[in-house]
C-alpha cells in the first residue's frame, strides 16, 4: 500500500516557518489610498451623481456575481433541444382534434411561437443568455470600477503572494491584458514598486479612458508625465509583433468575455508567446470558469511538449548532428508525444534546444504537478480573499460585520521551462481544525488528493499545519513510501 511519510522542511527552521505563517494568515488586501483618491477624482467628473453611479455599480456587481462562464455552442444546442423536447411533450395534448381540423397549420405555428418564447425565457432564467460585458460610456466605466476595482485588486494581490517563494524575482516589464479598472496596475506596483514598465491593454475605449483618469497625478506634472507611474502604456490591442515580450503577463477575468473556445485558446497562445517567464490567469470561482482555466492550462502543457519533428530533423541535419537514436525515437509510433519529448531531450546533443509547438510550460501555482487535475471540471479549485469595498455613497458594506467583503476566485500561474526536481509545493485543499488534531486534504504531486492527519504529539509540525488556511502550501514535505499502514508521520 502506498502511504505518505511527512518530513519537516530541511531548508527552513520551524521557527522561521511559523513566522511566515503569520504572514500567510493575513488574507485581506485593501486598495492603496492613492488608488482610492484616483478613483474618487475620476468619479466626480462624471455627469451623473456619485450616488446614482454607486447604485448602478451595486446592480452590476450582483449581475457579475451570478454570471456564468460561456458555454460551448454544442452545449447550448443540447440544452435548448432538451428544454424544447420537454415543452413539446407537455403541449402535445393541449390541442384538440377540432382545433386541428378548424385551424390547421395556424395552431401549430402559434404553438411553435409560444414554445420558442418559453425556451428563451427558461434559458435566460437559467443564466444561459451569456453576453460579453460591454462598457461604452464614462459612467458605465465608473460603475464597473466602483464594483470591481477593490475585489480585482485583492484577487490579483493574492495571486502575486505566490511569488513569496521566489523572493529574488523582480520583473522589469508587466502586461495587464484586460486591465479594466486598473486593479492590476495597483497590485503590481504594491508588490514590485521598482517595476520599470507596465502596459495596460483593454478593448473598451471608455474603460481605458476612465482608467487613465484614475491614474493621473493629483498635482500638475512637472516632468511632462501625467500619470502616477513614469512608464505606463495604455493600448486598445496587443502590439502585433510577438517579439515584444514581458516578464509577467496578467489576464484577469478575461476568458469569460470570449464565447468561443478556439478564440480563447488563440488568445492564450498569443499571451504565452509574449511572456518572458510567467502567465497569470484569474477567473471567477464558478466551475465553468475553472474549466476554462484548465482548458488553457492543458493546452499550454500539451503544446509545450509536442515536438515539431520536421523542424527537429531539419535542424540536426543542417548541423550534422542527427543520430540514429533520434530517428528511432521520432519514428516509434508506440510512444506518446510526451514520452518522445522526454526521450528526445536526453538524445539530442547538449546545448541544443528541442523545438516544440509552443514554449514548454510548467505550473508554478497552485498545482504541485503538471498532470491532469484530480478535481476534473465538475468541481472548482477556489481561493478566498478579503477586501474593504469602496463606495461612493458613504454607506458601509453589510456582507460582513467588520464592513469587509470576501471574493472567491480561481487562478493559474504558468512558468516557462520544465518543473524543477524535488520541488515541494503540495497544496491544502481543505484544512479541518478539530479538537487536538487537524485533517488536511492535500493536492500532491503524484498521488492526487490525499488526506493527512496530524495530532498535538507532532508538536511544531502540528502547529505549522493548524495555522494554515485552505489554499496555502502544505508546510511539510510529503514522500511516497510503501507500508501496510495508511499514514506514517515522522518528526
Automatic annotation (TrEMBL):
Gene Ontology BP terms: translation
Entry annotated with the keyword Thylakoid: no
Subcellular location, record wording: Mitochondrion
Cross-referenced Gene3D superfamilies: Vaccinia Virus protein VP39
Keywords, alphabetical: Iron, Iron-sulfur, Metal-binding, Mitochondrion, Transit peptide
Annotated Gene Ontology cellular component terms: mitochondrial small ribosomal subunit
Matching SUPFAM superfamilies: S-adenosyl-L-methionine-dependent methyltransferases
Transmembrane segments: none
One Gene Ontology term of the molecular function aspect: methyltransferase activity
Record PANTHER family: 37S RIBOSOMAL PROTEIN S22, METHYLTRANSFERASE-LIKE PROTEIN 17, MITOCHONDRIAL
General function of this protein: Mitochondrial ribosome (mitoribosome) assembly factor. Binds at the interface of the head and body domains of the mitochondrial small ribosomal subunit (mt-SSU), occluding the mRNA channel and preventing compaction of the head domain towards the body. Probable inactive methyltransferase: retains the characteristic folding and ability to bind S-adenosyl-L-methionine, but it probably lost its methyltransferase activity.
Name the record gives this protein: Methyltranfer_dom domain-containing protein
Lineage: Eukaryota, Metazoa, Ecdysozoa, Nematoda, Chromadorea
Amino acid at each position: 500500500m502506498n502511504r505518505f511519510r511527512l518530513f519537516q522542511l530541511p531548508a527552513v527552521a520551524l521557527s522561521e516557518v511559523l513566522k511566515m505563517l503569520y504572514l500567510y494568515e493575513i488574507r485581506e488586501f485593501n486598495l492603496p489610498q492613492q488608488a482610492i483618491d484616483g478613483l474618487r477624482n475620476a468619479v466626480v467628473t462624471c455627469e451623473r451623481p456619485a450616488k446614482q453611479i454607486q447604485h448602478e455599480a451595486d446592480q452590476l456587481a450582483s449581475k457579475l456575481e451570478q454570471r456564468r462562464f460561456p458555454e460551448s455552442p454544442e452545449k447550448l444546442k443540447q440544452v435548448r433541444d432538451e428544454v424544447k423536447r420537454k415543452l413539446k411533450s407537455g403541449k402535445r395534448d393541449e390541442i384538440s382534434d377540432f382545433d386541428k381540423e378548424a385551424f390547421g397549420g395556424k395552431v401549430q405555428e402559434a404553438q411553435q411561437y409560444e414554445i420558442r418564447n418559453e425556451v428563451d425565457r427558461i434559458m435566460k432564467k437559467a443564466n444561459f443568455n451569456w453576453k460579453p460585458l460591454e462598457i461604452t460610456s464614462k459612467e458605465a466605466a465608473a460603475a464597473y470600477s466602483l464594483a470591481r476595482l477593490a475585489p480585482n485588486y485583492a484577487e490579483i494581490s493574492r495571486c502575486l503572494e505566490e511569488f513569496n517563494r521566489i523572493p529574488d524575482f523582480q520583473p522589469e516589464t508587466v502586461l495587464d491584458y484586460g486591465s479594466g479598472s486598473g486593479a492590476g496596475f495597483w497590485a503590481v506596483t504594491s508588490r514590485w514598486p521598482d517595476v520599470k514598465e507596465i502596459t495596460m491593454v483593454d478593448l473598451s475605449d471608455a474603460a481605458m479612458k476612465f482608467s487613465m483618469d484614475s491614474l493621473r497625478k493629483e498635482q500638475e506634472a512637472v516632468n511632462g508625465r501625467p500619470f502616477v507611474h513614469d512608464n505606463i502604456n495604455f493600448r486598445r490591442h496587443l502590439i502585433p509583433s510577438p517579439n515584444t515580450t514581458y516578464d509577467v503577463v496578467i489576464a484577469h477575468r478575461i476568458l469569460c468575455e470570449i464565447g468561443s473556445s478556439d478564440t480563447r485558446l488563440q488568445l492564450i497562445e498569443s499571451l504565452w508567446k509574449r511572456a518572458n517567464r510567467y502567465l497569470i490567469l484569474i477567473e471567477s470561482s464558478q466551475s465553468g470558469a475553472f474549466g476554462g482555466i484548465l482548458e488553457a492550462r492543458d493546452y499550454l502543457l500539451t503544446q509545450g511538449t509536442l515536438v515539431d519533428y520536421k523542424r527537429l530533423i531539419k535542424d540536426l541535419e543542417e548541423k550534422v548532428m542527427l543520430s540514429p537514436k533520434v530517428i528511432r525515437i521520432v519514428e516509434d509510433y508506440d510512444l506518446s508525444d510526451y514520452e518522445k519529448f522526454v526521450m528526445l531531450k536526453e538524445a539530442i546533443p547538449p546545448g541544443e534546444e528541442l523545438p516544440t509547438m509552443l514554449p514548454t510550460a510548467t505550473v508554478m501555482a497552485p498545482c504541485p504537478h503538471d498532470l491532469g487535475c484530480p478535481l476534473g471540471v465538475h468541481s472548482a479549485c477556489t481561493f478566498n480573499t478579503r477586501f474593504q469595498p469602496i463606495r461612493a455613497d458613504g454607506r458601509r458594506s453589510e456582507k460582513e460585520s467588520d464592513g469587509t467583503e470576501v471574493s472567491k476566485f480561481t487562478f493559474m500561474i504558468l512558468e516557462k521551462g520544465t518543473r524543477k526536481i524535488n520541488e515541494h509545493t503540495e497544496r491544502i485543499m481543505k484544512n479541518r481544525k478539530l479538537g487536538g488534531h487537524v485533517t488536511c486534504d492535500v493536492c500532491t504531486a503524484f498521488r492526487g488528493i490525499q488526506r493527512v492527519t496530524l495530532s498535538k504529539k507532532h508538536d511544531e509540525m502540528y502547529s505549522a499545519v493548524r495555522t494554515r488556511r485552505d489554499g496555502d502550501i502544505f508546510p511539510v514535505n510529503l514522500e511516497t513510501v510503501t507500508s501496510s499502514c495508511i499514514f506514517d508521520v515522522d518528526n
